[in-house]
Specification:
This protein is mainly beta and about 180 residues long. The chain contains four helices and twelve strands. A hairpin with a 7-residue loop joins strand 2 and strand 3. It binds flavin mononucleotide. Flavin mononucleotide binds next to strand 3, strand 5 and helix 1.
Length: about 180
């Protein structure tokens, strides 16, 4: 009931022969310094075994254009399907980890597992972020900031996929003092 969530593509495996992709919504940020995040996965998933084996994964953000492929990777298993061939998505080995980025993704976050919390139905992979690769097309050349709106990021809420809605304000806007009116000289 905590909404919205991202629906990311988790890249796992360490060689082109065992690269796999899994859709995950139980994913998030845990810490700024050191940068840490998590993904919570059922042990029966093929991806679970790969992440446990290699201790690495890549969180690839998804976009409107990737909606169909993202859903598909969340209903089929890499145990019996080549999800790359089936979706047309392209892998690229990480810079620091061996797990793959999805080239079509606007942002890929490379992670190294530091702890596995066996919670119940899902086990949470707690991981340190070791590298981030952003598609230059969405980087504002002046500020160096990643332009989320331009990337067309996708969110997931209660079984439905959405694009992000209207912007309501920026961090801290509620306490910002109104700008003083400029005097005409
Ligand atoms: C939108 C969406 C979100 C999902 N989130 C998770 C998740 O957070 N954890 C999980 O274990 N499975 C999740 N799944 C299910 C897996 O993606 C699915 O079982 C997939 O087939 C596993 O692939 P694999 O066997 O190749 O690893 C999600 C599926 C969808 C469609």
């Amino acid at each position: 009931m905590i909404y919205p969530l991202p629906a990311v593509l988790v890249g796992c495996g360490a060689t082109p022969q065992d690269y796999n992709l899994m859709t995950a919504a139980w994913v998030g940020t845990l810490c700024t310094d050191p940068p840490m995040c998590y993904v919570s996965i059922r042990p029966e998933r093929h991806s679970y075994q790969l992440i446990k084996k290699y201790g690495e994964f890549v969180i690839n953000l998804t976009t409107k254009a990737m909606a169909r492929a993202t859903d598909w990777c969340g209903v089929k298993s890499g145990r019996d399907t080549d999800k790359w061939a089936a979706t047309g998505l392209h892998p690229q080995p990480g810079q620091v980890v061996k797990a793959p980025w999805v080239l079509e993704s606007p942002l890929s976050i490379e992670c190294k597992v530091v702890q596995i919390l066996e919670l119940g139905s899902h086990h949470a992979f707690i991981a340190e972020v070791v590298h981030i690769a952003a598609d230059r097309r969405y980087l504002n050349p002046a500020t160096g900031k990643f332009d989320l709106e331009a990337a067309g990021l996708m969110a997931y809420s209660h079984g439905q996929y959405y694009t992000l809605g209207q912007r309501l304000g920026h961090f801290g806007f509620s306490v910002k003092k109104p700008a003083k009116p400029k005097r005409n000289l």
